[in-house]
Amino acid sequence: MSKQIITLNVNGERQEIAVEPRWTLLYTVREALRLTGSKEGCGTGDCGACSMIVDGRLVTSCLMLAAQADGTEVTTIEGLAPSPVAGADGRLHPVQQAFIDTGAVQCGFCIPGMIMAAKTLLDANPNPTLDDVRLGLAGNLCRCTGYTKIYEAVLSAADRMR
Amino acid sequence: MAKETITRQEYRVVGKAVTRIDAAGKVTGKTVYADDMHLPRLLHAKLVMAPYAHARIKSIDSAKARRLPGVEAVVTAADLPPHRKNPSNRREVLLAEDEVLFYGQPVAAVLASDPHVAEEARDLVRVEYEELPPVVDPVAAMAEDSPLARSPVSEVDRTEEKGHIATGVEQREEQGKPSNIASEMSFKRGDLEEGFAGADAVVEGTWWSGMVHQSYIEPHVTIADYDATGELSIWTSTQAPFYIRDEVSEILEIPETKVRVTATEVGGGFGGKIFLYETLVAALAMVVRRPVKLTMSRKEDILAATPAPQAVVELKTGMKADGTLTALQARLIYDSGAFPGAPMLPGCLIIGGYYKCANLGIQGYEVLTNKVSVGALRAPGAHNATFAIESAVDMMARKLGLDPLEVRLKNAVEKGDPLPSGQPYPAIGLKECLQAISETAVWNERRDSRKHPNRPDGHPPARGVGLAVGGWLGGLQPASATVGLNGDGTINVIVGAADITGTNTSFAQIAAEELNVPMSMVNVTTGDTKTAPYAGMSAGSKTTFTVGRAVKLAADEARRQILEIAGHRLETAPDDLEMKDGVVRIKGSTDKTLTFGRIGHMSTGFAARYAPVVGTGTITARRQAPGFTVQIAEVEVDPDTGEVTLLRYAIAQDAGFAINPLSVEGQMQGGASQGLGIALSEEMVYDDKGRLLNPNFLDYRLPTTRDLPPIEAIIVEVPSEDGPYGARIVGEPSIVAGAAVIANAVADAAGVRVYDAPITPERVLRAMGKIKE
């Protein structure tokens, strides 16, 4: 299938990528850029595991074609920590650290999308209530945690970011 | 309360809430799951799936698909390498050969280097079918004149089920006249007639619970490669690497030493990631002699993995006015789908396993239909049975004007009480869980819930509170582990168990505890089946219970070896030494010391004087450590829409000893949420032709953040006899109670009893008589 060149700014790096018309943004980022942190859990926009931030908006990247994203700024889970040496103390985004500290991470498959949704929520609303958190994460399914510790993580992250 | 029987002060690391050792990789997107892996010359497989529940394959025309540029091969059953075939065993039916037995059954595989090309070619494969009558309803399928779902089963392989639960009971395969009943079993105790005659209240009902899917967020992914030396490598998202090795080896007739299975990070399993298409993908790799990856789409996964069965449970129970349970008669029908393997046996044990009851009669049936065959889902079979017994107990209590919690306390099983099979319980904590729930705010404010100001004028939404018991017996399998000292004094733990729940974090705690070092000095690795010490499947809630014991023994042995070297070096008896934070010293002395780093160097360096420190721990587990839970909900029922809103939820569960309370709470909350999905929204809906109508996450509805309030988790600790530090099974019991909790809460709020789960708005309105047919 013939390809077209698109330009994406992914996690601060400009990328020119030859994409097929049928490639989704998720497929392109995972396969062409080998940034595999974003996950495909359903391919139909129902689970949120593929969530990325595109031009400041939370997007289920399995539903966005790569060609539609031409010229956009994309942030994936790999672009969230301020330092590429993730895991060392103080080098994670407060949301990431809060997810670790509260035990909100189990199998981890939903976590990249969940964290992107949480970041988007906190950017828009730095002082969320529990209900705000429950509304803000409603597009992201987690099967392991029952969400309780995820609520704690997001509320704790809000504290840390204040 | 048993909570106080453990003195945590005596431990340094175990019993403390610690964060997971693998969490940093997961929050940064760096953890590698199977679908994130690439191999050189990798081919992607897509499956051609049957569009009928029951049909004969007349012909397969793959010419057009093969001609599509980029397609490497189209493989049908006829093209597969020679392998063992038992039509009764789904694992040996790699592709449908003649007869299609369920909607979505794989019929052919298309291989291409580009997954989109493989998908396009898949749709070009033409299969001609002759439709056969589908058998969909398990109860109708039991009738003598029912059409058969398939040819009768024989030599059924039940090894997988035994990984989930150890029962000491065999079920009978049906022999003789062809029938859809694959197997049946029964338990009897006392005299039922006498039991019912002595009852002051008798309750009778039929409870139905729908087919549900594990719905791990990561669909199944498997990669296989067959190299020039005849070695088969499999990377797969599985809970059971050694089990897959054994089965693949047997089916493809390759020695176990030539099969390497690597369990990749599991993006959720819950019993659904034991063994699925690993043999098929391996066989495809053998056909094309290139690595092959199968990544299932969500739709394919819901259609053709191993979901959990629907069940029909007929139950009659009797109780005396003082609350004594006098008789329990049950008939449980599990819909197995197109192959045997339904969890009828655990259901039969559980339904009569919560309460002392002198008179029991329990019958179980495993029925074949033309649906995808079922597998395990967290305490397989238990939730279906629990929905019935825990609803019935509430109904009897209500009839007799008794308190539902007191009635349960009065009859609850304790150590020494028999299961329906006669096997006595070891130490268990059901009563302690009931007591813990009696102290929750939800329970103590239950009368206020009912008086909620929303219904002063008799116009609800009405609020109410309900509770229920859940339990699981747990699996048993041998386990082993090694604990080694590195040259720099750090500790390596190697196990063969896939870490699906944070078990490797607990193993790091155990090794750190035994060697008296901080956890940061310990690293835990799950090896592959060629390098790791053997462990059973990570199923049956037994990983910490069994592998944890092996790690503890291995750490103790490593400790002994370290002390022996240090004793020799410091010219003193090992008994006179102590170790802390990686330093060995003569007790009471400050100058006679030796660091782990020094000992590591002396046992690994060039011309080293001492042999390396490698402790090995091996165990076999013969006695279970059953886990009980009691859960309570406050709900609001909207009388106009039938919608049930969950307001508050609490779970108490006996963990024996919570090695990592943070992950124990996570298991309790996560399992409870899955039970609530079963209770409120999850159901695989089939039409009368056996076609699944909702294979996606929009129509198959998992609980979302909008549905679930925070879940209060109360850890109860009644030590088990055999688990490390008294730990018992944790993962599974939490899923079991949900449907009964919600049914009881709805009854309390709205005064109506719902017998079908999920308890959807429609079913609530039916129970209220607001929908009639």
Strand content of chain B: 15-25%
Structural domain count of chain B: 3
β-sheet strand percentage of chain A? 15-25%
How is the CATH topology of the largest domain in chain A named? Ubiquitin-like (UB roll)
Straight-line distance between termini of chain B: 51 Å
Low-confidence runs of chain B: 1-6
Largest sheet of chain B: 7 strands, mixed
* DSSP helix fraction of chain A: 25-40%
The counted number of beta strands of chain B is 28
The CATH class of the largest domain in chain A is: Alpha Beta
Neighbour order of strands in the largest sheet of chain A:
2-1-5-3-4
Main beta-sheet annotation of chain A: 5 strands, mixed
* Chain pair with largest interface: A-B, 60 and 58 residues
Structural class based on helices, strands and sheet pairing of chain A: alpha+beta
Give me the count of strands of chain A: 5
Mean pLDDT of chain B, nearest integer?
95
| CATH fold-level label of the largest domain in chain B | Aldehyde Oxidoreductase, domain 4
CATH superfamily of the largest domain in chain A: Beta-grasp domain
How is the largest sheet of chain B built, in terms of strand order?
3-5-1-13-10-11-12
Shape of chain B: globular
Q: Ends of chain A: how far apart?
A: 50 Å
Question: How would you summarize what this structure contains?
Answer:
The complex is a heterodimer of chains A (162) and B (773). In chain A, 31% of the residues lie in helices and 15% in strands. Chain A is α+β, with helices and mostly antiparallel strands.
3D architecture notes:
- The complex is a heterodimer of chains A (162) and B (773).
- Chain A is α+β, with helices and mostly antiparallel strands.
- Chain A folds into 2 domains: 76 residues, Beta-grasp domain (Ubiquitin-like (UB roll)); 68 residues, [2Fe-2S]-binding domain (DNA polymerase, domain 1), CATH 1.10.150.
- Chain A is built from 5 helices and 5 strands.
- In chain A, strands 2-1-5-3-4 form a 5-stranded mixed sheet, sandwiched between helices.
- In chain A, strand 3 and strand 4 form a beta hairpin.
- In chain A, helix 2 crosses helix 5.
- The mean pLDDT of chain A is 95.
- With 773 residues, chain B is an alpha+beta fold.
- Chain B is built from 21 helices and 28 strands.
- The longest helix of chain B has 28 residues.
- In chain B, 61% of the residues are buried.
- Chain B has 3 domains: 221 residues, Aldehyde Oxidoreductase, domain 4, CATH 3.30.365.10; 184 residues, Aldehyde oxidase/xanthine dehydrogenase, a/b hammerhead (Aldehyde Oxidoreductase, domain 3); 143 residues, Aldehyde oxidase/xanthine dehydrogenase, molybdopterin binding domain (Aldehyde Oxidoreductase, domain 4).
- The N terminus of chain B is likely disordered.
- Classes of the chains: A alpha+beta (162), B alpha+beta (773).
